[in-house]
């Protein structure tokens, strides 16, 4: 089975449409959506409706911190402009879309795979996996063969050997990576809707369970159109500007 893992969609319709088209061309059979459907972008309702359709077809979907903020109100430690985007988002969503967000779990486990938005140590506290030590802590807490995390917008792959040695590297676009079962793996696919590694192309990953291979993909999309929609909505202009350079 080929499983596409998407995260941090951030209300970016153009990016999500491009990624879904690309995934279909890769003959993906199932999707996992790791949260942050809303925030920053101009089309939260469309993104949520698309996610609901995918879930109805068997996709996994999780709650992200921006999704939680849309439900409960933005926390004080969230940046002022991000809080502004959450307040705007709350005015755009329908009752059915709020209900969908309320239905989302923090984590989901399927066999040897654990999916979380942030990390497996304390999923609801929204801590980042920034280092090898963070990755080891999550792998040990998760007790799984494969752990997929969002929240960090930069693609990265960590691995833990049977002798507790951890390594990591930045994956290359489209290059299959063997992920055999004698190691544990933590993959951060990067962001669909708001990449932050200097590459504006949308990021996601595909796990081929039968082949035990993981491929990270970058998908160009019409980021100028997405940026124009952000400006037209009256959201902070730098949310639009950053889409063009992936920052």
Q: Care to describe what's here?
A:
It is a single chain. The chain has helices at 13-25, 44-56, 65-72, 80-92, 95-102, 132-142, 223-232, 237-245; strands at residues 2-6, 30-33, 60-61, 107-110, 113-116, 146-149, 156-160, 166-169, 177-178, 184-188, 202-208, 213-219. It has 247 residues and is α/β, with parallel strands linked by helices. The two termini are 33 Å apart.
Query: Looking across the biggest beta sheet, what order are the strands in?
Result: 3-2-1-11-12-9
Quick one: how many beta strands? 12
Work out the strand percent. 15-25%
**H/E element order:** EHEHEHHHEEHEEEEEEEHH
Structural class: alpha/beta
- Fill in the CATH topology of the domain at 2-107 and 173-179 and 188-245: Purple Acid Phosphatase, chain A, domain 2
How would you sum up this structure in a few lines?
This protein is α/β, with parallel strands linked by helices and 247 residues long. The chain is built from eight helices and twelve strands.
